[in-house]
Design brief:
By secondary structure, the chain is an alpha+beta fold. It is built from 14 helices and 14 strands. The two termini are about 90 Å apart. It is an enzyme of class 2 (transferase).
């Protein structure tokens, strides 16, 4: 036997449930509609009967001696006109002897009221009844007529026949039936669409293939280098991949099989969404992203509770279905950022140096072509005296060739931007014990110098000073500029990520510099006065390499 496809199974199941549910709902609604319509008609006719029982002309007719039972009486004509205007089938006034004073059929005037349900009204009660009379089965409202002294002198009965109620019910039932059929059609189309949609999002998998798909999903989670955890609505851990176990284990310890409740509380907190939140757990610096899972909550019914004020419908609230957290090792992210930023700074500085070198080379080639060897010799001496030797002398104390070359290149960039860059060394700067520290310095110095260059751009005095010094395994780094400076509020905000005085899309360089310095246990301070420039001071732990060799930069 051929197995039904998943889309066909979903369509048949959903369509059947929709048709069955709407069919049952229609029957229940039809029954409730009938009950409500009959109840409304009963309340209506009883209200009419009570209003008519208070009329003075009816009271006078029943107090008359003798009582007139005449089909041509003024009372009957007036009551019949009122009946047609109100849309009821009969209005009957009867005396204490159950004899009619009014009736739609003139021949019934003066005869006994039929139905046998008028007794309580003549005893002084108001009520609704259903009984068969001259016009057929009807819903009747009764009210007693009292004299001035309170004595019951008769009764008024108003009613509508079930045939009239049936006509009203048929009209409303037709609308409900058309609406139900339309809902069935829409539901069938929705079931068809749902079947195709589910089939599509499952990539064509059939039920017997889903287990294989789940296994592939587990393999995918296991292969992620990013940690993934999930908890359900009850706060229980429902998912954790191997990378998360490794990241949550203490440094140097083997990954644990479970996660302590205290760790889960730190990761998930109150479930509030978070993006790139920094957290330190078990000696590891982590970047945490948290997303809350929302699911629709079933509304609680309390009898015939009113949904909301002014008849507004209640909107189903959603409740938390748990949370998903992803983890990344911040040191790895920082390392990648350092590499990317360092490469960018290298490229920018080398581009400036290349441009400056090309300009000098063009001059040399021009003088060679002119065979003006004397002018060429003087030009080369000028370059050596004014550019090459001074620049090399300024960085002669920097023993790391990468950092020294970077500072030389930044000097070329400053000259190209018509900025006076001074590099001052308070002491020799030997190579660091860790190669990573060199890249970190390139990132920090590059960002600080770039900010200083931008601060002095467009000003009359364009001066930037970089001061380096080493004391007791701590590297001090100062960058001062002659820019416009900052006020106290700007100094407090400038280190926040995304905050910058240079416009939208900026404000990430200083935030990253502070993150790098904090990760190394360093310190950063900013001093600035409006109109007098800015000074940035950085102190960074710096372990000197056991041995270092210069590459001729002296």
């Amino acid at each position: 036997m051929k197995r039904l496809r998943l889309s066909a199974q979903i369509f048949i199941l959903v369509a059947s449930m929709i048709v069955l549910t709407l069919g049952v709902a229609f029957l229940l609604f039809d029954y409730q509609l009938k009950e409500n319509l009959e109840r409304a008609q009963g309340e209506r006719v009883m209200g009419l009967a009570a209003a008519l029982a208070d009329r003075s002309d009816i009271r006078h007719a029943l107090e008359a001696t003798p009582i007139v039972h005449d089909a041509d009486s003024a009372l009957r004509r007036h009551v019949e006109a009122l009946r047609e205007r109100l849309g009821v089938d009969f209005i009957t006034v009867m005396d204490r002897d159950h004899l009619r004073l009014t009736h739609p059929d003139p021949n019934e005037v003066g005869r006994h009221f039929r139905g046998g349900d008028e007794g309580p009204a003549l005893a002084g009660e108001s009520y609704v009844s259903r009984s068969e009379g001259t016009l057929g089965v009807s819903i009747r409202g009764f009210a007693p007529v009292r004299a001035a002294d309170g004595q019951v002198i008769g009764a008024v009965a108003t009613g509508v026949t079930l045939s009239r109620v049936g006509l009203l019910l048929a009209e409303k039932r037709q609308v409900v039936l058309l609406g139900t059929l339309l809902l069935m059609l829409v539901g069938g189309l929705g079931a068809w669409w749902l079947a195709r949609y589910i089939k599509r999002i499952l990539l064509g998998f059939e039920p017997h293939q889903i287990s294989q798909w789940v296994q592939e999903r587990q393999a995918l989670l296991a292969s992620l280098h990013e940690g993934v955890l999930a908890i359900d609505a009850g706060g229980e851990l429902s998912l954790i991949n191997p990378a998360a176990r490794e990241l949550l284990a203490p440094v140097g310890a083997a990954p644990a099989t479970g996660v302590p409740a205290a760790t889960l509380a730190q990761l998930f907190g109150d479930g509030t969404p978070a993006i790139n939140q920094r957290l330190t757990l078990n000696g590891r610096a982590l970047i945490v992203n948290r997303v809350q899972i929302r699911e629709r909550a079933r509304p609680r019914r309390r009898g015939r509770e009113v949904a909301a004020d002014n008849g507004a419908e209640r909107i189903d609230e959603t409740r938390s279905g748990g949370s998903v957290v992803t983890l990344r090792d911040r040191s790895e992210v920082n390392r990648l950022a350092e590499e990317l930023t360092g490469v960018s700074r290298y490229a920018q500085a080398l581009r400036a140096s290349t441009h400056e070198f090309k300009n000098r080379l063009h001059v040399i080639l021009g003088l060679v072509q002119l065979r003006d060897l004397g002018r060429l010799e003087r030009y080369l001496h000028e370059l050596d005296d004014t550019l090459i030797a001074p620049a090399a002398a300024r960085v002669s104390g920097v023993k790391d060739p990468v950092l020294a070359g970077f500072l030389l290149a930044k000097g070329s960039e400053a000259r190209e931007r018509r900025i006076e860059l001074e590099v001052e060394l308070e002491s020799d700067i030997p190579a660091a014990a860790e190669e990573e520290v060199c890249h970190l310095l390139v990132t920090i110095i590059g960002n600080l110098l770039e900010n200083a260059f931008e601060a002095v751009a467009g000003r009359d005095e364009r001066q930037v000073t970089l001061t380096l010094g080493l004391d007791a395994e701590a590297l001090s780094l100062h960058v001062a500029d002659s820019g416009c400076g900052m006020d106290a509020a700007q100094r407090d905000e400038v280190l926040e990520q995304g905050v910058s005085t240079k416009g939208e899309g900026r404000g990430y360089g200083l935030a990253m510099v502070r993150a790098h310095i904090d990760s190394r246990g360093g310190h950063l301070a900013i001093y600035s006065t409006p109109g007098r420039g800015t000074l940035v001071e950085v102190t960074l732990p710096y372990a000197v390499a056991p041995s270092w060799i210069t590459d001729g930069v002296t």
